[in-house]
Amino acid sequence: MPLTWEDLAGRALARQFPAVEGREAAAVADTLARVGPVQSQTARSPFLGLAARLPGVEHGAIAAAYDAHLVVRGSNLRGTVHTSTAADHALLEVATRTGQRPLWARTLRLEATSLEQVWAALEDHAREEWRTPAELGEHLRAWIARHDPGATPRLEDTLGRYLAFGHGGLVRRPLTGGWEGQGKPVYRTATALLGPRDDALGDPGTTLAELVRRHLARHGPASRQDLAWWAGVGLRGVDACLARLGEAGATEQAQGPDGRTYHDLTDAPGPVELPGVRLLPEFDALMCGYEPSARVRFATPEHLARLWHQANGLVDAPLLLDGRLTGAWRLAGSGRARRCEVRWFAGTRRPRRAEVEEQLEHLQRAYPVEVTALDVTREQG
């Protein structure tokens, strides 16, 4: 029987809001192992996302998970920053090497060396100590000049400067301030902190298939287009992974409401309802886990257009109400004392003030702010 958008939403919510025991650092890692990587170019996003999915977790437990390398932050999928478990990081690196390879090749324009040699040189430079972006950029320029003098890299523009610290084999931490802040980052080689990658790079096909399996476990059902968009790799590579999983009897298929084929694990949980309010972070997985046209499982196209500003790529922090994205919210002001402003879209249920206040209690335990005022208003249009 074909799946409806409601079916797809309910099945995804069952995975994205798991019941996890405990609220210590290990529970933080367990939650991220179940829900998957959190897009984190906004440093507060993992703290807000965990407040919504692990209610009652304290800020100190999340910071402790980072400090103990139970969870790590690095540039990987689609060249964006993600927080993931240490176990996921090696898989994300393989996807990044696969998906970002054309971009690196066009930018570095190597002649006598390979991208593998460049990546190894960056990892060697950051193996023993934390490096700033400027130090990594200078090392990359000097290494290419010395080992590949015929190359004509473009490293002076924004993209070129990014490549030095955007390698998926590095992890990052704030140079000063807490993990929830936007302080300047420094970078270190992942294997120096997390141990060897095992055979992740030696057999990328197997590694990518495992990454696809994990994505289905956390976000499924998903189409091949969803998987390719999320991982930042081509459809051909995704198809090979899905074929491998299908031959092993790990997945099943059903037609979706948009005519696409949706894949899921054979032992996937059934759909659930999620009543009440959740205050989600910018770039939450309910949006970034799926190709843009398939996000209608959680919201109407009109509401999605209000949340995702295509002109600059920014996303408003979504309001999840009864399992649907029906508004947005923000913490106004600066400093520790903040005003919370919640707006819901016309034509949807108004979030009750008590529902929002309950979520704000969880948020203030996970993220170091004090909400001193709350506005709940309807957005016209």
UniProtKB/TrEMBL annotation:
Instruction: Please indicate if the UniProt record lists DNA-binding as a keyword.
Output: yes
> InterPro entries under this entry?
AlkZ-like
| Superkingdom as given in the UniProt entry | Bacteria
Assigned keywords, A-Z: DNA-binding
Molecular functions (GO terms)? DNA binding
What the entry lists under PANTHER family is as follows: LMO0824 PROTEIN (PTHR38479), WINGED HELIX DNA-BINDING DOMAIN-CONTAINING PROTEIN (PTHR38479:SF2)
The name on file for this protein is Winged helix DNA-binding protein
